[in-house]
Amino acid sequence: MLNSFDPDHPGTLICNETTDTPVIKGITAIRNLSIVTVQGRGMQGVPGVAGRVFSAVARSGASVLMITQSSSEQSICFVVRTAEAKSVVAMVEREIELEIMRGELERVVKQDEVAIIAVVGVGMRGRPGIAGRVFSAVAESNINIISIAQGSSEDHLSLVVAHSDVDEGVRAIHRQFQLEQV
């Protein structure tokens, strides 16, 4: 360890592990969103349906902020800004129009007035129970979680909730992890 600016100072030790990394580094909210759902048995085991849906979203010019898909492959939901949601739904419905007519897919459903609560922290990685604590905090505040996404990096967890619940949801998670003490 050396400090090139102050040779008498011991310098900084850089290592792979830290001892006091907080589990949760921050919580944020993204507002004015809509969640769009595409569902139906015609999706199950059929390659390319998700690709077509997201190609249609791209053609609409919208950016997708969050995506989830059921393990049964019978539904995909994604979050876009409310200002873009109407055109996204129209473009997706146009793309899957034939499947809707055949009854393989249902009409595209849009739910406005939702928000994403994003919980972020490198300390979440590999630590069992963190998501459970987040979910418990939200449930104890009587808030329904509409959709959930967590990346494989395990350093963030995103929840879609009603816009009216977002502030209390952020506060509940904040209290659960005692972030006021950090």
Please give a quick description of this structure.
With 182 residues, this protein is of the alpha+beta class.
The chain-level mean pLDDT equals 89
Q: Rg, please?
A: 21 Å
Counting DSSP H or I runs of 4 or more residues, the number of helices is: 5
Q: Which bin fits the share of residues in helices?
A: 25-40%
CATH homologous superfamily classification of the largest domain: VC0802-like
Briefly, what CATH class of the largest domain? Answer: Alpha Beta
Which fold name fills CATH's third level, the topology of the largest domain? VC0802-like
Distance between the termini: 28 Å
H/E order of the elements? EHEEHHEHEEH
Which ranges are low-confidence, i.e. pLDDT below 50, for 5 or more consecutive residues?
A: none
- How many discrete domains? 2
Spatial ordering of strands, largest sheet: 2-3-1-4-6-5
What structural class do you assign from the helix and strand content? alpha+beta
Oligomer: single chain
Give the total of beta strands.
6
Level-2 CATH architecture of the largest domain: 2-Layer Sandwich
